[in-house]
Amino acid sequence: MKPTRIIIDTDPGVDDALAFLFALSSSKISLEALTTTQGNVTVDKATRNALAILELAGAGHIPVARGNMLPLVQPLRASALVHGESGVGNANLPEPKNRPVGLHAVDFLIEKILAEPGQISIFPIGPLTNIAMAIRKEPRFASAVKELVIMGGAIREGGNMSPLAEFNIYVDPHAAHIVFHSGIPITLIPLDVTHQCILKQEHIDRLLKIKSPVSKFISDAMHDYMAFSLEIGQAGCVLHDPLTLAALLAPELLTLREYYVDVDISGGVSMGNTFADFSNVSKKPVNMKVAVDVRGDDFVELFLTHMETLGRSIQDRTK
Ligand code: BDR
Ligand code: CA
Questions:
Q1: CA–CA separation, 281 vs 303, rounded Å?
Q2: Which domains does the chain have, with CATH numbers?
Q3: Which of 151, 157, 166 to mutate for ligand 1's pocket (most ligand atoms within 8 Å of CB)?
Q4: What is the pLDDT of residues 229-241, one digit of tens each?
Q5: pLDDT in tens, 245-281
């Protein structure tokens, strides 16, 4: 079977980095590019991290396009508590040898998607600024994207940035509003399911048994995220962004339901809240599939097995 072609739009970000490694570890996925945005860190740091992580994984040939510096309306935010000042925790990644491509991420996305309509899916795992701008800039963009698999939102669950809003949507709710109403087929992976996928210290110790730059990177990158997670009462680090790839690699682990989902951009306490019309009282047509449940432990095991395989292959390559 031909691999599924994807572009990841991202703000790396510790769990973003794990999502790239996960995508690279599977022959079922062809990772065609990374496009970067602000979010966990500035777009400059996000771009540097994206290039450096690809090089660490021996995938320096994959293009990286640098995107927006600011959300559409809101001010810039960063989440150093979780991701560290650099965006990759304590990992000391060497300066990347490659440079981002000459095109802005929005133009890069438009060019790639329009060149082969209906062929490429986009996995946005940061704020949706680039995707919203591509929709607004090129009217043919929305109908040419195969699918969006978005990490974002909190449907029945509370938020992680405000009581009602999840980080990626909170940072650029206006972009999310444009994307949710674009008509692009969407699968949403919200906090409701990511919170069931927890990477524990014992899992990191298991990965460290393989002497590979991949295991070392994961351990270093997750060090402070682990401490922060334990401090706020979680059993370990939530694998938010990697879970999007379950939609391709193990869809049987996810329970999806179709809903009309909207995002609050009215500016009050619920700004950035994502809400589903469970009983279809608004009579609006369904605009996405939402993951409402996941077999979390099975997902973590799948992720670990893939990281072990990737770790071994990188160890072999460097022998
Ligand atoms: C999301 O916020 C970011 O900090 C993570 O990388 C993830 O994409 C979870 O709310
Ligand atoms: Ca992210």
A1: 38
A2: 4-317 (3.90.245.10)
A3: 151
A4: 999 999 999 999 9
A5: 999 999 999 999 999 999 999 999 999 999 999 999 9
